[in-house]
Design a protein that fits this description.
The chain is an alpha/beta fold and 234 residues long. It has a single domain, classed as 3-Layer(aba) Sandwich (Rossmann fold), CATH 3.40.50.150. Strands 3-2-1-4-5-7-6 form a 7-stranded mixed sheet. Strand 6 and strand 7 form a beta hairpin.
């Protein structure tokens, strides 16, 4: 399991900026985005894209998860974690933002209290134990490839079956949207995303014996573009 000393300074620098953004700058906007509250048209496309991506990742997990443990790495306000717990999984949701974790705890159904736990912290650090499945939805998209590869390797050390994660694909359309996005009000901006070529991701993952890439899917809805990838043991 990674300790702070094992984590690259570049990862720590990005992580600290994300903490400030999600827990201070845009806390209210993300609470609204992850609810049914009215949002701007820009954020409505992001909400629709995130809903589609969450549904995709959940469709790659077993329908019956009784007896399985899942780590929701970068859980935000907890929507995916709740759905996995409803399938019977024991779920640990971890997020950098204590404020979003507090919302996740408040929204969690009381009936799931015995198998759903939310913690504020780094998904790579902490004594959370091992898991059958790990999901990192849009929690690695702000990091360069080297840090993504190191993070996935650290998560693989304590994962028995699969890691489902998303990355920002390097496409001309996404680059254009990022450029246009700088013209929008700060309240509609997210932290800088680090696009990565799909082939570079695949080459990095191929260096890990005992693991193979499986399904992948691109979700593009307005100002939301993210690609899901399934990495499985065996």
């Amino acid at each position: 399991m990674a300790s702070r000393a094992d984590i690259a300074p570049s990862y720590l620098a990005v992580r600290d900026r994300l903490h400030d953004y999600f827990d201070r700058t845009a806390h209210r906007q993300w609470v609204d985005l992850t609810s049914d509250a009215p949002v701007s048209r820009i954020r409505a496309t992001v909400r629709a894209g995130r809903d589609e991506m969450r549904a995709t990742l959940l469709s790659w997990l077993p329908q019956d998860m009784n007896g399985l443990r899942l780590l929701d790495a970068g859980c935000g306000t907890g929507a995916l974690a709740v759905e996995a717990a409803r399938r019977g999984a024991e779920v640990v949701g971890v997020d950098l933002s204590p404020g979003l974790v507090a919302i996740a705890r408040a929204r969690a159904p009381a009936a799931l209290a015995g198998r759903l736990r939310f913690e504020a912290g780094d998904m790579l650090v902490g004594d959370f134990g091992s898991f059958d499945h790990v999901v990192a939805m849009d929690s690695l998209i702000h990091y360069p490839l080297a840090d993504i590869a190191r993070a996935l390797a650290a998560l693989a050390e304590r994962t028995r079956a699969s890691i489902l994660f998303t990355f920002a694909p390097r496409t001309p359309l996404l680059a254009a949207m990022h450029a246009v996005g700088r013209l929008f009000p700060r309240s509609d901006r997210s932290p800088m995303i680090a696009p990565v070529g799909k082939e570079r991701i695949l080459r990095a993952l191929a260096r890990h014996p005992g693991w193979r890439t499986a399904r992948t899917r691109l979700v593009a809805r307005g100002f939301y573009t993210s690609q899901a990838l399934e990495w499985v043991r065996g």
